[in-house]
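Lab notebook, bench 4. The sequencing result for the construct came back, and we need a structural model before the next group meeting so we can plan mutations. Quick request posted to the team channel:

Model the 3D structure of this chain.
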Amino acid sequence: MTGSHPPAGASEKSLPGPAATQDKPRRRDDNGMCTGKIGLRALELGTNVVIDFGLWSRDERSALRQAAADLDATVQLRYFALTAAEQRSRRDRRQADAPHTTWPMSDDELAEWAATIDIPTPGEVDGSEPVDEPPHGFTTWHEWRSHRWPPSVS
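Done. Here's the predicted structure in token form:
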């Protein structure tokens, strides 16, 4: 998802990767929302931003689309579908070329994670679909973001 300013101006899912430890639970939100919060701050400052940390669920995408809209930023959502064979090929290449930047993952794990992604609709991608209302129990997307990605996450 990219956001740019005009000129001048509730279920937890595991993060793909190494298993959680008792001392440090892993949640998909840990790394991503820190990036998202920095990205939103950059938008406030009038800087173009690319957020590339998953956006696995429609709620996550809606929350960030609304946050960008609240800042009068334009959103461009991009989704690139990959076959399982291409995912395995990229994993294998990454493990061979730069093993220090990744972790071991099995074919079963790749398949499991792929099954958890909520694929964006064509309307989300082309911007023709309005942002959804916040999930039940939340009156605003800001409230949902604060609950989903509390300050302690970043």
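The first strand starts at residue 2 and ends at 4.
Will bring this to the meeting.
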